[in-house]
Amino acid sequence: xxxxxxxxxxxxxxxxxxxxxxxxxxxxxxxxxxxxxxxxxxxxxxxxxxxxxxxxxxxxxxxxxxxxxxxxxxxxxxxxxxxxxxxxxxxxxxxxxxxxxxxxxxxxxxxxxxxxxxxxxxxxxxxxxxxxxxxxxxxxxxxxxxxxxxxxxxxxxxxxxxxxxxxxxxxxxxxxxxxxxxxxxxxxxxxxxxxxxxxxxxxxxxxxxxxxxxxxxxxxxxxxxxxxxxxxxxxxxxxxxxxxxxxx
Length: 248
Ligand code: DGL
Description:
Layout: E1 2-7, H1 13-21, E2 27-32, H2 44-60, E3 65-68, H3 71-84, E4 89-91, H4 93-103, E5 110-115, H5 117-122, H6 124-132, E6 136-141, H7 145-150, H8 157-167, E7 176-179, H9 188-194, E8 200-203, H10 204-215, E9 225-230, H11 234-244
Parallel strand pairs: 1-2, 1-3, 2-9, 3-4, 5-6, 5-7, 7-8
Helix pairs in contact: 1-10, 2-3, 4-10
The structure holds D-glutamic acid.
D-glutamic acid binds next to α3.
C-alpha cells in the first residue's frame, strides 16, 4: 500500500517517523511545501489553495491513502481535500483528540493546546474538546517554535526564552499538553521539563499510528521504500529526515 504524507515543511517527519517505524506500508511518499512554510501565519483561503496543489502532486503519485501531517492544513483544508480526492485523506486533529480522550479521560483535566496561530484561530481543538465535555481548556499560539525546529534547535537559551514568553502568563500546571503542531514533538523534552515533567504530552504521530492500526488492521510490510519531495530545499528536507529517522 502506498501512503502519502504531507506537511508544510519538515514537521510532518515526526508523524512519518512513527509510521515508518511501525512497518505498515510498502511505499511512503513525503511532500513538504518548504517554499511556502509557515502555513500557520497564512489565511484559510491560502492554506486551502496550497493544500489543493499538494493534492494534485499526490494524485500523480498513485497513492492509496494520504495523511495530512500538519495540524494547520488539517484544521482548514481537510474537508476540502476529502471531497476532491479519490483515496482516503486523514488529518491529525481527530486522532489527537482520540488520544487525549484515551490518555486523559478525566473531564476535569487541565488541558493546554499549543499550535500555530491558524490552528488556534480555527478553534478545531478547543471546540472538539469542549464538545466531549472537557471543562478546562487553554489554547496558546506558539508560532516561534516552528522555525526553531526547522533550524534543528530543540533546546537551549532560545527555546527557554520562547517557552518563557508563551507560558509565563499561565497560572496553572497543565495535566495534558496537546502538541497541536507536528513540529512540536521535537521540543517534547524541553516543554516537558519546563512543566517539571508533570504534564502528559499528546503527540500527533503516535496518535495517528493508533488511528491507522484501528482503521486498517491488516496493514503490514517488511520493507518500506521512502521518497521525499519538496517545493523548495529538498536537500535540507532529506538531511533533516536522515537525522530524525536515523536513516543511513
Ligand atoms: N507542521 C505544521 C502544523 O502541524 C505547522 C507549521 C507551519 O506553520 O507551517 O500545524
